[in-house]
Records
---
Amino acid sequence: MSRVQKSVALRWLCTLAALAALVIVLFPVYAVIVGSFESTETLFSGTYYWLPHAATLDNYRTVIQAQSGSVLTSLIVGLGTAALALVVAVPAAYALSKYRLRVTVILVSSLLICQIVPSIVLATSLFIVFHWAHLVNSYPGLIIADGTYAVPFAILVLRAFFFSLPNELMHAARVDGASEWQTFRRIVVPLARSAVITVAVFAFLNGWGDFIFALTVLNGSTIVPITLGIYTYLGNYSTDWGAVMASAAFAMVPAGVMLVVAQRYIASGLTAGSVKG
Amino acid sequence: MNIKAQRAATVPVPATSARNGAGQLSPAGRGRRLSAWRRRQLAGWLFLAPAVAYLLFAFALPIVYNVMLSFEQTSPATIAQFTAPFAGAANYRSVFDDPTSRAAIVHTFVFTAGSLLGQFVIGFALALLFTLRFPGRTLARSLVIVPWLLPLIVTGVIFKFLFQVEGGAVNQILMDVGLAHHPIDWLDDPHLALWTVLIANIWLGVPFFTLLLYSALQDVPVEVKEAALMDGAGPWQRLRLVIVPIILPVIEVTFLLGFVFTVKVFDLVIGLTGGGPANATQLITTWSYNLSFQVFNFGQGAALNNVLLVLALICSPLYLLLSRGSLRSSSGAAR
């Protein structure tokens, strides 16, 4: 009896520990949501309120007026990054897993190295290269830059998935007279659906959340993603916290949506040994 | 295999002529087979072409150009021209003579080592917690990855909000529970700011460690754990002598990946401190950004970039070694 009681107590102790960890993990998100409804007076009162104090929608009014264009911009960039990653990575991953090519080992090693290269190294050069290629301050330029997070990761994850498809499948298609492209398009891609979704979700989040390339290859005038929008609210001496919190709340929406809708894809993508940032 | 079988079926070859007539039959057969092989190679290359073009433009070109830039005397005027006068090692000399660059290198080491240590200890503890059965464990496990999904600049900004001197949640709770008697200047005290950035980055990286270590712990065979229990090993002994050695390869990979993305951290610091106060939180990344994009000295920025690149790539042989499984399966055989 006491043994059972002890084990029950231990279980609840674990729950308590997990709860404490979750409070720390989730508190910043909670703080953004509460902060986004606080009035400017509350935010600058010098006291932190754990619960909403004199809630208002003023911050959202300000931000929707000033930042709805930015939300749209970030959506375009996120979707563009996902599209780029898929167009480039799906066929490449297929070639690197199902064709015996001499470059496979070199290319896969380069992809592993690419994931190590810090973004600032690329950003410095890309700014000048883009200047020369007329890609500064353009959607294609930003999407190409943001693809540097997503493309190597996408190829490696998809390649690992393609290994799990039996070769007989492709042989059978060829015997039936399908061309290499038809085999890829009609047989391989549909079967890779879940891996493709995983890769697309991550590429979208990379494009949506990118800050360093938005800061460097855009000039901040016409194309302003939400991340850059938040940054411009940060003043050296006076930060408009209400507006910052409301736009941060918008910036967190895709992560929340993905966590609810695409939970299993996220979990599988993360354990695939992802490298972010 | 199937193609060959089919061809054998459609082209009946008398058993007797197999040896003698080989010279006659084989050229046509080999020619066809060769062309099929060539077609497949060509298809493979076409599938690869977009990726190769992309990698050349978005990785190879910038990396090579960054090396060129670091040996050039750049100015805002030379940016439009794509090339600038050769400057020898002048940029590297100025970078290593500059106290802020040197401090940024030291900060990067401290920041990386501190982050990895903190992330590992907390991440491992959480991973162990999640292997136990308790109510709410699945939900807790799925929510713990939230920090990993947020845009990094947002995380930086949120922590700036939470670590404010007045009206910041952190100071508020420390004072409410009596751990601090006066507000702590987390972000504006040059001696403290780097630690604040470190805390934020540990918060950010723990989920990654937790997730990878948890999935490794799941793979430890139950029999091994039970055998250790039978032999009378205590929990600490079981962990140190049985579990850790088994999951050591995953721990190594996790550290390596953690290292790779900690030396790259940029957004978090820009959002939280902007490298200040008095450059106390400048990392190589943020100072390189400052050199290139604030004072428009792209040559020096590129030189510092290369220092960072070398630092990041130091571990790449180890990385490739640990990823050799993924390279080996490239021999084409399906699993």
Note: DSSP finds 13 helices and no strands in chain A.
---
Amino acid sequence: MRVAYYKGCLASLSAKELDTSTQALAPKLGIELDELESVTCCGAGDIHEAEPDYYLHLNARILAYAEATGSDTLMTICNVCTLNLRQANHMLQNDEALMKRVSDNLEAVGAPPYSGGVEVKHFLWLIAAGEGYDRLKSVAHKGLKGLKVAPFYGCQILRPSKLLGFEDPDRPSSLEAIIEACGGEAIDYPAKIKCCGFPIIQAREETALNELIQPIEQSMEAGADAMVTPCPLCHLSLDAWQQKLEASTGRSFGMPILHLSQLIGVAAGLEDSELRFRRHVVSMDPVLEKVEAP
Amino acid sequence: MATELQTNGGGVTLGAMDVVLKIWRSDAETGERSLERYEVTVGEEATLLDCLDVVKDKVDGTLAYRKSCRMMICGSCGMRLDGRAVLACKERMKPYVDRGHVPVVSPMGNLPVVRDLVVDMGPFWSKIRAVKPWLDTGYQEHPEGEFRHSQQAMNPIHKESLCIMCGCCVSECNSMEADPEFLGPAALAKGFRFVGDPRDRGKIERLEALNEEHGIWDCTRCYFCNERCPKGVDPRDAIAKLGAESIEAGIDRDMGAKHAKWFVRSAETTGWLRETELVPKTQGLAEAIRQTKFAVSLAKRGKVPLPFPPHVAKDVREARMLRELVRSQGRTGAAGHIQGERALSRIEHVLHDDPEKAPASRIAPEKARG
């Protein structure tokens, strides 16, 4: 299947490893990526909060460029991009007058118009069910050798479920299905659907760290070798801010954090240059040792 | 399954069913806590509250829980069912029985438990009071006639006016769990109910207060409040409206507001987030310098992308022109959110998951609320 690919800010900047591993993996799973060039940031929750009308137009512009590729699917690799784009899309698809105003505005600045013909889907959703899932099992030939992986969903791929709706927001199972298809063991723990604290990690660090500690501590206590997340913001929080958590609690966690594409990538035997684990703050060596062990 | 039939007032014959529940019993005074199993026979239409009533009447009169209206309007019976905050009077039990699932009932979160399913709502009410939940009309003398307002003028606060103050949103608020002083979703939704009221004269004063330390910028956007609200208030959206109104009014001293504004600035200059400058723009230069050690540790891993040359999106001119254009059209502040509400309320609440795997309450999709 051919999809328009929107990688968002972080995969172009501090989480480049998410982009390279996704680009390397997607074709193996039968997903042909048509990367969007003339697009901007979706605004995270921030432009949505600061200037909501601008948020709507920026996201409509991304949807319009996706529609212009001729694909009916816009693939995202970030929870926040997913919610932003799906929310904007629902607003436009369900209100003709709003769609007309926004589409006219897009044309007025030289962007393509938008008619509502695109559905926004996270990469996770394309491979957790149906044909994508069947292919996943054959692609993950190398396997994870029973690696114990704690899935961390984050918020904005689950809630609000009326906008996301891929799976039960309280008992999701897509990441577990993928971990198991890759030959790993999915670890269960209560905080897997809670917040990583990232949206307020700069403005309210203490509060954010009080949120961040829950998934890391619980997955460690449940015996996880590593955690996996479908969101680069959660990844940054769990991986890069883990050292701050260690400093503030005086404890040692050392929990390796994988992007979803990297977890499958390891099982599928992607190259180091595609996985780029050197870009992580917490070392991935213990995970690789376990998976590479004879 | 019991086979006896009972008749309701309308003469329609309804089946009966046996419901099995586990309830967390506790007593704050003694510190005792235990998970108890109960089995009751109720009509097939029974809600969780109906089941609790039968437990109390026929099995154990010491069970403590709150209730009043039994019709989703008084907001008394908030509690957790399988970990989700719900109104007990809204949750039908038949899907659970059909699946053979035994649900666990427990008190709401983020509030101290008094006994069994009863929580101390004191902290909840003090936060509601903190946002001054009354109209500031700006006059002392009683006017001679009524002031008339169009329905249209009141529509912007329609959703927030639906709040029944049950506490389901507060129960699951991730920020409040991490910072118990956070005003939280219910109080902030109430805050917008008055900030957005065209009759109120205290808007700026209210926004100033809501921009204090434990106010709107504490929200971590976990969206549990929107997910749980049984009345379609969508408190997170109300918080976003307060953020938009604050920034539009020039109340942007909080780091959260500065953080949000930097995304706007990034979008209209380079298109993509100017990630490395986000820290000094949010926290100020002095704090950014204090964070040098942390920044260096991230830079070693390529996580501090150089701001020069800037990472500029193709055709970014369009994004810049778009901002100028939409600002000239006047849907600024909360109006930008409110314009999408009618469309969002039309979305069917449908999950694409395998219904066999979903918990009972999710099997029958319900219409989107609000």
Note: The longest helix of chain B spans residues 255-269.
